[in-house]
Design brief:
CATH class of the largest domain: Alpha Beta
Order of helices and strands: HEEHEEEEEHEEHEHHHHHEEH
Number of helices: 10
CATH superfamily of the largest domain: Glutaredoxin
Oligomer: single chain
Mean pLDDT: 86
Radius of gyration: 25 Å
Largest sheet: 5 strands, antiparallel
CATH architecture of the largest domain: 3-Layer(aba) Sandwich
Length: 298
């Protein structure tokens, strides 16, 4: 857990903090000029690699227990700035990021490079596919919310309660639900996802009913009773129980859930709920940000 936290701090810092540094100091704080390579090319890159690793180890207190690897350095879109991939690992925890270094090895930039001439949401938009996923609202809506969620996730339940109040007053918008059960930490989430998918396949109009019922009963569902709970909900919705049972047991249904999970992984989703408002990402049940993005898109 400690290793994971420290790696996470590293990633946040690299993603959001911009600073120029990479100065080596002596006891009297006088900057020391970077060591010049004895030959061009590989020798200079080797100097940059060692300087970047030394600096990052110092900033983040990565001792011998941390394995820091510098990948192949290559030119960045900005002249005189090199792209330096970094991988940090400790035990089974591992993460990676990119930093940038000047060609003379004097300065390090932690952050992201954005091309101002390119739509910043184009790549995300190309990976969002409403497809045949459960949805409410017009298909040609100007504003769409695509939500990746997990039925066992408390934050997803909180977002669900926000959206229950929100969507009726915004009939012009479209909400699309995508399954993303976090099976490593939520043992009954996949079963619930499959049950809701089977409900949707049998009667699309009843998907949102079982969706709400599962979230409402979240505290009462356990790994040992989830199957019975799903059967009870299906019966309450007057579904054909033989069809429902067959669907629950079918590998194809699980495959359908896995397909939406693959969509989420392509979007680098790691937590739920993650919602996209016209490709703008919101992590968590953030009503203030939701309102802000929707107002902007109107």
């Amino acid at each position: 857990m400690i290793a994971k936290l420290r790696v996470a701090i590293f990633m946040v810092s690299l993603a959001f903090v911009f600073s120029a540094a990479a100065q080596t100091t002596t006891g009297n704080k006088t900057p020391v000029a970077p060591k010049q390579p004895t030959s061009a090319g590989d020798s200079k890159q080797g100097t940059i690699e060692s300087s970047v690793e030394k600096y990052l180890r110092n900033v983040y207190a990565w001792g011998p227990a941390y394995d820091v690897k510098i990948g192949t350095i290559k030119p960045s879109p900005i002249p005189d700035l090199l792209e330096v991939p970094v991988t940090i690992s400790m035990g089974r925890q591992s993460d990676n990021a990119v930093v940038y270094a000047t060609k003379d090895g004097k300065f390090l930039v932690r952050g992201e490079l954005d091309d101002l001439s390119v739509d910043p949401f184009a790549d995300t938009r190309s990976k969002l596919h409403p497809g045949n996923s459960p949805s409410i609202g017009p298909e040609d809506a100007k504003i769409s919310l695509i939500e990746f969620a997990d039925f066992e996730c408390p934050s997803c339940r909180e977002l669900d309660r926000i959206l229950r109040d929100f969507m009726p007053s915004h009939p012009e918008m479209r909400l699309v639900y995508k399954h993303f059960p976090l099976t490593e930490i939520h043992p009954w989430a996949m079963t619930a996802a499959i049950a809701s998918q089977c409900t949707y396949q049998q009667d699309p109009s009843k998907f949102w009913k079982i969706h709400d019922e599962i979230f409402d009963a979240q505290d009462l569902i356990t790994p040992s009773n989830v199957w019975d709970k799903m059967m009870d909900l299906a019966a309450q919705l007057a579904l054909n129980m033989d069809t429902f049972r067959a669907c629950m047991a079918s590998p194809e249904t699980a495959h359908q859930i896995e397909q939406t999970m693959e969509e989420g992984r392509a979007l680098e989703i790691t937590g739920t709920p993650t919602t996209f408002v016209n490709a703008r990402r919101i992590i968590g049940p953030d009503k203030v940000l939701l309102d802000q993005y929707i107002e902007f898109e109107k």
